[in-house]
Specification:
GO molecular function, one term: DNA-binding transcription factor activity
CATH architecture of one domain: Orthogonal Bundle
Keywords: DNA-binding, Transcription, Transcription regulation
Helix content: 55-70%
Organism: Chlorobium phaeovibrioides
Distance between the termini: 37 Å
Pfam families: HTH_5 (PF01022)
Number of helices: 6
CATH topology of one domain: Arc Repressor Mutant, subunit A
Protein name: Transcriptional regulator
Length: 126
């Protein structure tokens, strides 16, 4: 397989000051892996649908099944993944379990993702 010459440097060189500055900025391996796991958990259309709904309101599993037209089993499975990744949290009230986004950073991350997609598409709803 040949490389596209327009995507690589044609001459080997490096910029010591830039390399040093960026090397000092780099996150730890542990943090990089944790963020990769976060994005992996976000990388599913069903989970993003759940998170989109939770951006608007705390919801119980029954509400999510109606909104998303998914089975309770499917919603519960995706919520387990999201809870395991600390993206959503739950609370029990009587016989119902309510889910919400774990913290404001998660909401910002999702909203920023939607803004990026809308910008790339030239506006409009996602």
């Amino acid at each position: 397989m040949t490389e596209n010459r327009s995507e690589i440097c044609l001459e080997q060189c490096f910029h010591p000051e830039t390399v040093e500055r960026v090397s000092g900025f780099m996150a730890s391996r542990e943090d990089l892996l944790a963020v990769a796991e976060l994005f992996k958990a976000l990388g599913d259309g069903s989970r993003m649908s759940i998170l989109n709904a939770l951006l608007c309101s705390e919801l119980c599993v029954c509400d999510l099944t109606m909104i998303l037209k998914m089975t309770q089993s499917a919603v519960s499975h995706q919520l387990r993944v999201l809870r395991g990744a600390k993206i959503v949290k739950s609370r029990k009230e009587g016989k119902n379990v309510y889910y919400s986004l774990d913290d404001p950073h998660i909401a910002m991350l999702i909203e920023t993702g939607f803004e990026h997609v809308r910008e790339e598409r030239g506006g409009g709803d996602v």
